[in-house]
Amino acid sequence: MTETTGVTLARGFAASGVTAGLKPSGRPDVAVVQNLGPRMAAAAVFTTNRVFAAPVKWSRQAVADGQVQAVVLNSGGANACTGAAGFADSAATASRVAAELGLITDNVAVCSTGLIGLRLPMDRLLPGVAEACARLSPDGGSAAAQAIMTTDTVPKQAGVTRGGWSVGGMAKGAGMLAPGLATMLVVVTTDADLDAATLDRCLREATRVTFDRADSDGCMSTNDTVLLMASGASGVAPDEQEFAAALTEVCADLARQLIADAEGAAHEIAIEVVGAADERDAETVGREIARSNLFKCAIFGGDPNWGRVLAAIGVTDAAFDPDDLDVSFNGVMVCRGGQIGDDRALVDLRHRDVHVRVDLHAGDASATILTNDLTYDYVKENAEYST
């Protein structure tokens, strides 16, 4: 069966997901995605946290030359804050993939997610890696998406097809969602025939306006990785702008899925800031609102409390006149000109999707931040910690 989304939507890729016994739940926990070529171009962006995990250190080196032949991912352990021994474990994991598939070890990226501060059980991980390599399939994208889940309740996949070429991806993330990136593992694949430099430019811009604007709880992880690989199997070299648009669409879809599955959230909230003096101001205002616990509590309680929005705006250094602020909840302008607007009783917050629009009336720039109300009521049976 041909995959219609995910990392094996694009031609020239095989993937798998298996159970190695890393998770107490016994659920799948090791995935491999292999680029079958003919091109092996790659680009990646990583966490900006100064405390970063061993697999991030390894993968930064692996992708530095713009070539990645495969990526191996494990859930059930972050391999973060594990010192030189943890780095050696990442190297050994990449080496096992290379040995099983006949690849170059330095061209294998490694991603890990789970609890920080524990060594990975290599006696279980390495046999699992071997099994995952043996099970690689052009229809294995869904299995791979399942294997990278931690506290995620659903696998996250996306994909688009354009004129003879495709972009597909998978993501993991349900907690610690904050910018730079959004506390996640993401693998995106394409069969477009593009070089590493083009991939890098497109990925950085796509990440900037999607994953970097997903801000659930303000907690930045140690393991964030977004990896993009191009096989060139379609033989089509799309225009860079066209490819960037498709890539951004896939990343935006995955970012929305991350926010929707965030632990304990009852609402998915899009905070659109318009009329800003520049894009930085728009992002600053949107992010300040997104991180207001009082604002989140109001949304959870079904209260369009625009006063909490204005209070959040007021602590930023953005350019605005307090007497010229408009705030709308789901299309109802409850604050007009910095004071009482339409009747707040007209706002219906019973549905999961919430749209908050803020107009600063200070310029033409805009930005949208994705967040949720995160009630923290997310105790789940067999829940596992995640980065």
From TrEMBL:
<dbReference type="Pfam" id="PF01960">
    <property type="entry name" value="ArgJ"/>
</dbReference>
<feature type="site" description="Cleavage; by autolysis">
    <location>
        <begin position="182"/>
        <end position="183"/>
    </location>
</feature>
<keyword id="KW-0028">Amino-acid biosynthesis</keyword>
<dbReference type="InterPro" id="IPR042195">
    <property type="entry name" value="ArgJ_beta_C"/>
</dbReference>
<dbReference type="GO" id="GO:0005737">
    <property type="term" value="C:cytoplasm"/>
</dbReference>
<dbReference type="GO" id="GO:0006526">
    <property type="term" value="P:L-arginine biosynthetic process"/>
</dbReference>
<feature type="binding site">
    <location>
        <position position="263"/>
    </location>
    <ligand>
        <name>substrate</name>
    </ligand>
</feature>
<feature type="binding site">
    <location>
        <position position="387"/>
    </location>
    <ligand>
        <name>substrate</name>
    </ligand>
</feature>
<dbReference type="GO" id="GO:0004042">
    <property type="term" value="F:L-glutamate N-acetyltransferase activity"/>
</dbReference>
<comment type="function">
    <text>Catalyzes two activities which are involved in the cyclic version of arginine biosynthesis: the synthesis of N-acetylglutamate from glutamate and acetyl-CoA as the acetyl donor, and of ornithine by transacetylation between N(2)-acetylornithine and glutamate.</text>
</comment>
<keyword id="KW-0511">Multifunctional enzyme</keyword>
<keyword id="KW-0068">Autocatalytic cleavage</keyword>
<keyword id="KW-0963">Cytoplasm</keyword>
<feature type="binding site">
    <location>
        <position position="150"/>
    </location>
    <ligand>
        <name>substrate</name>
    </ligand>
</feature>
<feature type="site" description="Involved in the stabilization of negative charge on the oxyanion by the formation of the oxyanion hole">
    <location>
        <position position="113"/>
    </location>
</feature>
<keyword id="KW-0012">Acyltransferase</keyword>
<feature type="binding site">
    <location>
        <position position="172"/>
    </location>
    <ligand>
        <name>substrate</name>
    </ligand>
</feature>
<keyword id="KW-0808">Transferase</keyword>
<protein>
    <recommendedName>
        <fullName>Arginine biosynthesis bifunctional protein ArgJ</fullName>
        <ecNumber>2.3.1.35</ecNumber>
        <ecNumber>2.3.1.1</ecNumber>
    </recommendedName>
</protein>
<feature type="active site" description="Nucleophile">
    <location>
        <position position="183"/>
    </location>
</feature>
<dbReference type="InterPro" id="IPR016117">
    <property type="entry name" value="ArgJ-like_dom_sf"/>
</dbReference>
<dbReference type="InterPro" id="IPR002813">
    <property type="entry name" value="Arg_biosynth_ArgJ"/>
</dbReference>
<feature type="binding site">
    <location>
        <position position="382"/>
    </location>
    <ligand>
        <name>substrate</name>
    </ligand>
</feature>
<feature type="site" description="Involved in the stabilization of negative charge on the oxyanion by the formation of the oxyanion hole">
    <location>
        <position position="114"/>
    </location>
</feature>
<comment type="pathway">
    <text>Amino-acid biosynthesis; L-arginine biosynthesis; L-ornithine and N-acetyl-L-glutamate from L-glutamate and N(2)-acetyl-L-ornithine (cyclic): step 1/1.</text>
</comment>
<comment type="subunit">
    <text>Heterotetramer of two alpha and two beta chains.</text>
</comment>
<dbReference type="GO" id="GO:0006592">
    <property type="term" value="P:ornithine biosynthetic process"/>
</dbReference>
<keyword id="KW-0055">Arginine biosynthesis</keyword>
<feature type="binding site">
    <location>
        <position position="183"/>
    </location>
    <ligand>
        <name>substrate</name>
    </ligand>
</feature>
<comment type="similarity">
    <text>Belongs to the ArgJ family.</text>
</comment>
<dbReference type="GO" id="GO:0004358">
    <property type="term" value="F:L-glutamate N-acetyltransferase activity, acting on acetyl-L-ornithine as donor"/>
</dbReference>
<comment type="pathway">
    <text>Amino-acid biosynthesis; L-arginine biosynthesis; N(2)-acetyl-L-ornithine from L-glutamate: step 1/4.</text>
</comment>
